[in-house]
Amino acid sequence: MSLLLRDAVLLEPATGERVEADLRVAEGRITEVGQRLPAPDGTRVLDARGAVVIPGLIDAHVHVTASTADLGALPALSPSYVTAQSIRAMGEMLDRGFTTVRDASGADWGLAKAQLDGLVRGPRLHFCGKALSQTGGHGDVRTPGVAVHDSHQCCAGLGRVADGVDAVRTAARDELRKGAHHLKVMAGGGVSSPTDRVDSTQYSMDELRAVVEEAEAANRYVAAHAYTARAINRALEAGVRSVEHGNLLDASSVELFLAHNAFLVPTLVTYWALKEEGARFGLPEASVRKVDDVLTAGLAGLDLAARGGVRLVYGSDLLGGMQRHQSREFLLRREVQDALDVLRAATSSAAELLGEVGEIGTLAVGARADLVVLERDPVEDITALTGPSAIRWVVQDGEVRVG
Description:
TIM Barrel, 5-stranded parallel beta sheet, 2 domains, alpha/beta, Urease, subunit C, domain 1, globular
């Protein structure tokens, strides 16, 4: 399949450079950029008429299988029902311009392969399988009255419980065996978990280091769920590559991010959505009461990290019906960041975190032909990324998927 975009404004996020040019695609790759490029026989020609072209967007914190905000209910749902819900969610993400996503627990090899094989319409999936949690941690969805943990790995839950260095190593190796692109560890308390506190730390340093060691042995990396500076700092000292959320970080956390060359993936929109709609979409009342603990700190934490030079990546972390707000994260970040930096978080910086530099998040010749064609320049008006009417076409692997 050959595709030619004529008379486009090509916006390269890494540099901020704009070029008025044609862009040609063949065999799923960007093959040429220039003026008045020829169109070989069989080429589909799209007249951009001055529209702005950016790389396909990347969301580095999604849960495509989380069809409800009541995460404790997920393991009891039929896996086939959850799959059907996931397919719908993935298709809607692609409609919003997200051509690659990193699933931060829940998705597996089957969903990822189904997308690659063309059985599922949606973004390319980087997955971790199930997140690792200590007993009573953020990935343990049992309420206080439930004594037995069902660790069956065919269930649709987002986490698995493993305690002690040996058990943690076994769980990490099992997720890697199942094809995980990265490992996820719950290093602190969370909003949607029923028996922990947001300000708790989770896992011993030996356990955290064991997960990192197993990931590094497999040439993979670890993402850590953490809110408070104490939990963040422990995870960074253990060697994780990315911290998810990080709302309550402090100056010492910023120093550690820089020292370890690690990434921060804020997820501001999920707290806004949980506050507004969480109860409607199944968030238990006890979890609703936790939202305020992290909601107000999110923007301040993002501002501190951005000013300190921390590498920031786009994430949404939305659950159930709230996933429709995925693009609102752009608006929230714009309150404290330049629009170009916000765009980089969802393109070039995200590609770096995922180990996909030169493959995605760029318009460079040789990269995957993942493109979003916009009616307006997102650097001048960030709302160009937040509504379906602003997107003219979405191209993934050289095929027009939207428009």
